Input
Amino acid sequence: MYTVQKIEVILTVPSIEETAAWYEQLGWRAHSDTFDKDGHCLFGSVTRDVDKDVEQGEELSTVINLSRFTGEPGNYNHDHSNFTIFIAVDDVDAVYTAAVENGLYTGSTPETQVWGGKTLSIQDLNGFHLTFYQQVELPTLEEVRRRVEKTQAD
Output
């Protein structure tokens, strides 16, 4: 069995920069994490936590995460891939076991990501993306950026 510790939302958007600018007009603060080799933001967030600094490792309590949509532009509004529920659990392998045993998932085992979370992404019966994650290490933001750059170079 596993325990759900936190649920987060990730909006997959065509442009993190444009989305962040829209939220900034509502008084939100934008943060950009990682970038591709062309300088486009790959992952970021908008927050109402005005007194916290994510660059210093402080956890935000009011946040909408943003992930860059990298598919074909025509597909953006035609499926449910532009919305992900991000679910923190204490044992992502237990989620994997339950999903496999109940015939809900036939894919690969959970994998550790560059940001230190071990993840399992599945779709529900309506096609919505659910990503279960367990934080297995806490790399600095600078280390995450180095890892992203390395994966782009490989």
Notes: The chain has three helices and eight strands.
